[in-house]
Design a protein that fits this description.
Elements (H helix, E strand, L loop, with lengths): L6 E4 L11 E6 L6 E4 L4 H12 L4 H15 L19 E7 L5 E7 L5 H11 L4 E3 H10 L10 H12 L10 E2 L10 E2 L5 H10 L8 E6 L5 E7 L20 E4 L3 E7 L1 H4 L4 H10 L4 H15 L5 E7 L4 E6 L4 H7 L5 E4 L1
Parallel strand pairs: 5-6
Antiparallel strand pairs: 1-15, 2-14, 3-9, 4-5, 4-10, 7-8, 9-10, 11-12, 12-13, 13-14
Helix pairs in contact: 1-2, 2-3, 8-9
Length: 345
């Protein structure tokens, strides 16, 4: 750190939030700058930190941190070679937001381009738009000089083949024929709707399908930037876009208040704009941990079986998360590193 002072770099590993009720973990004020991200993606946090230490901006730090996860294919849920859709293709979503100007750049359903968060940054820098999607987003990326590359790997092909051999289970269809819980498509709409069918199918979705890295960076002067990157839900219906590239859902920043980012079941979470809501709670003086708890509690009123997490940080350097108080072994093993931290001289 410049000047030889001591400051803390913290990253958070978030457990999935499962019924019946939420718990929380958090921390008091920390010296700025601060880097916080979802899951135990340590190298991503370090990449963001070192970018700040080298004189980069908060946006630079978020971009570099999320890009590190794209390179490493963090948990197989970020970057190329993971989460193939129903056609076996990997597509990427990403978003980056400047809390000073409230500018947002995002891409969704991005094909053939590995550096999704880099393309999202270019949307801010070179367009007057906020979100580009699909093939047109890929063509924009190519025009910005990003190389065209195959996002499929042996691993993603293996995941896809295994899924086909399991009669396309699990999947995200409901109220269709043939019965999506027993066979692959193509599907057609059923004449009668069965809500119970969807509830049961949701419970079969693997909770490891948590996807997104969400990152909050708060600079020494209190400037805030946030970002996300993901390859989305594994076996998703082609064209599906989750919460990650949606401002206010996947992440949100306001340098007058702080930032927030979400991870988990994006199809549910995006309906509640949890990151925006968390920042608005903090705007009223709510501490980050309570802001996260309030957001998750609100979602659970409507979707008690959903899984997800929100991280929050304010410009005082206080950060908080919401974690599950009901844990199986998988969840608890992930919570052990929540308060891991280290210092740089």
């Amino acid at each position: 750190m410049a000047g030889g002072g001591r400051s803390a770099l913290r990253f958070l590993l978030l457990g999935l939030l499962l019924p019946p009720g939420p718990g929380a973990a958090g921390a008091g004020p920390a010296a700025l700058p601060l880097v916080v991200n979802t899951w135990a993606f340590r190298k991503a946090a370090e990449a963001a930190w070192y970018t700040l230490q080298s004189g980069g901006s908060e946006l630079d730090a978020v971009e570099r941190g999320c890009a590190q996860c794209e390179i490493e294919q963090c948990d197989g849920t970020v970057g190329f070679g993971g989460s193939p859709d129903e056609h076996g293709e990997t597509t990427l979503d990403a978003m980056i937001m400047d809390g000073n100007t409230m500018e947002v750049g995002a891409v969704a359903d991005l094909r053939r381009i590995k550096n999704a968060v880099g393309v999202a940054r270019k949307v801010i820098q070179h367009t007057k738009h906020t979100l580009l999607v699909g093939e047109s987003a890929s063509l924009f990326a190519e025009s910005m000089g990003f190389p065209c590359e195959d996002l499929t790997t042996k691993n993603s092909l293996s995941i896809y083949s295994k899924w086909l051999n399991q009669r396309c289970q699990p999947n995200y269809w409901k109220n269709v024929i043939p019965d999506a819980s027993e066979s692959c498509g193509p599907y057609k709409q059923a004449k009668q709707f069965n809500n119970e069918e969807w509830i049961n199918s949701q419970k079969r979705i693997n909770i490891d399908n948590h996807d997104t890295i969400g990152m909050i960076v708060i600079g020494r002067s209190g400037n805030v930037a946030v970002g996300t990157s993901t390859n989305g839900a594994v076996h998703k219906i082609p064209g599906r876009v989750g919460d990650a590239p949606i401002a206010g859902a996947g992440a949100y920043a306001d340098s007058r208040v702080g930032g927030a980012a979400a991870t988990g079941d994006g199809d549910v979470m995006m309906r509640f704009l949890p990151s925006y809501q968390a920042v608005e709670y903090m705007r009223t003086g709510t501490d980050p941990t309570t802001a996260c708890q309030n957001v998750i509690s609100r979602i659970r009123k409507y979707a008690p079986d959903f899984f997800g997490a929100v991280i929050c940080a304010n410009t005082n350097g206080t950060y908080g998360i919401n974690t599950c108080s009901f844990c199986d072994e998988t969840c608890c093993s992930r919570i052990e590193l929540v308060n891991h931290q280290w210092t740089h001289k």
